[in-house]
C-alpha cells in the first residue's frame, strides 16, 4: 500500500498516513516496563541478594556486620526518604539516595567543609575539615554516588530469579518508531535498578524518553506522572497518546485519569479489562501493533 508522507516530528520522523488520507489515531505510545516488556521475578528477601550488597559495600570500604544487621541498617537509612512522602501511597522514594546514605553509614563517612567525603577505617577518626589521619580514605561525592549505584545494581542482580524481555519486545518498539510514533517508557521503578537492566538488554535506546517514578517522585496511577511524560514528549493532546501496560489500576486507570487511552496486556491471566480501549491475552505484540497501526 502506498503511504503518503505525514506531518514530521522535530527529529524528522513522520506520522504515517493510513492510506485514506487520515493519520493514525495515536502519535505517542507510553509503555510500562515490568510485566509489559520485561518478564521478571525477584526475591529481595533472599540472603543471596543481601550478601551481594554486603560484598559491594565492602568493596567501597564499608563494614556491615551480619546480613541481619545490614537489613536493619538499610531500613534505618531508608526511613528518612520514605518520611518525605508523609504516608502518601503514590509518593515514590529515591533509592539512589538511600544507597548513598548506606555507603556513608557503612564506611563511616562524614562531609568536611570542602564537600569531600572522608571515610575512615576502624579505629581512626576524621573531624570537620581537618587533614585526614593516616589510613583514611578520601571519597568524593561522585565516588559515593558511584559506589551507591554499584551497590544497588549488585543487590538487584542477585535478587533476580528471572529477567528477560518478552519475545518480540525489541521488534515491537522498533516497528513503532519506524512508523513514526514516539515511544516513551513510563515505569514505576527505581532508576539504579532499571537503567542497567534496559542497557543489559539493549532497550534503553529504543525509547524517545524515559520516565522513572523514583526520579519523578510520584508513581502510577497518579495522573501527574503521565502528564509529566507528555511534557517530555512534547505532546499537548492526551487523546493522541496510548498507554500500554499490564496493571489495570496503575497503568490503565492512571492513564485514563490524565485523559489517555489504555491498552491492557494481560500477562498475569486476569482476563480482559473493561477500562481499556483494547485488551490482549499475554504479551500479544502482534495484536497490539495491528491495533495501533490500523
UniProtKB/TrEMBL annotation:
Q: Which domain of life is it from?
A: Bacteria
Q: Cite the entry's keywords alphabetically.
A: Hydrolase
Q: Which InterPro entries match?
A: HAD-like_sf (IPR036412), HAD-SF_hydro_IA (IPR006439), HAD_sf (IPR023214), S-2-haloacid_dehalogenase (IPR051540)
GO MF, any single term: hydrolase activity
Q: What is this protein called?
A: HAD family hydrolase
Q: What is the scientific name of the source organism?
A: Bifidobacterium choloepi
